[in-house]
Amino acid sequence: MRRPTFDLDVLRTFVTGVEFNSFAKAADRLGRSTSAVSAQLKKLEEQIGTPVLAKSGRGLVLTPTGEALLSHARRLLELNDGIFQTLRERETAGSLCFGLQEDFGEHFLSEILRRFVQTYPRVKLEVRIARNAELLALIQSADLDLALTWDTGHQSPYATRLGETPMHWIGARDTPLLGALEASPLPLIMFDAPCVMRSAATQALDAAQIPWRIALTSPSVGGIWAAVTAGLGLTLRTRIGLPSHLTVVAGLPPVPSLGYVLHSNGDDPTPAARQLAALIKTSLQEQAFRFTMAK
Prior knowledge:
Blueprint: H1 8-20, H2 23-30, H3 34-48, E1 53-56, E2 59-62, H4 64-90, E3 94-100, H5 102-119, E4 123-129, H6 132-140, E5 146-150, E6 159-172, H7 177-180, E7 186-190, H8 196-207, E8 212-217, H9 221-229, E9 235-238, E10 246-248, E11 257-264, H10 271-294
Parallel strand pairs: 3-4, 3-5, 7-8
Antiparallel strand pairs: 1-2, 5-11, 6-9, 6-10, 6-11
Helix pairs in contact: 1-2, 1-3, 1-4, 2-3, 5-10
């Protein structure tokens, strides 16, 4: 048996007439004649098999069936309009600038880009890999639409803290670092200051009265991983982007977790920026879940 199908055009006339409390005004608003509107309402009632409007004095009121229909009709129209709006936005050309820490780049960025391009294939996406201070400055100057940074306590007007991840002491898997590191001071591989992980490492070692020295500094995470792989020292970072040939080192002072924050350059982001922000949040949640399951 063929199921009846509502005509959305007829439902829009019905909803508009109820909202204006006048089907004559609805006809004018929708660019139709009053006779055409009357024909649509008659068609609607014939399809349902019962009146949706009843006379009340010189006007019309909704019947119980009409009240129920009104609620459903509004939802159908909202869904219809939302679909067309999404499709129009999807085809909208433009550009979007996104900045993030290098830690997130290798294993995190590619999945976000793949999902984003599926929704907004015509939006040009520019990605900037930089450290916290530079990313925050670019957000402040509106040279970035979004920036994913570590939570260093810096406040920006449009920032959302998305979560946190533990920091770990990291060493080479195949190098007997701990035995070699019994000799003082402890060699560290770090970014140049200021660096939130560098500060956390030195504060934890100072609190535990463990002498340390900066054995090597690198401007990139890749350089840090290379130096640790070579056995030049330990570093303090998160598991995000951790190469498989490096490992978490136990027996050193505990360090706190590190939060990550998504910054926007305004309170009214474009639909593309909102979509990218949602993808970033989802990807971080998925990554946190994988780390939890791997423990």
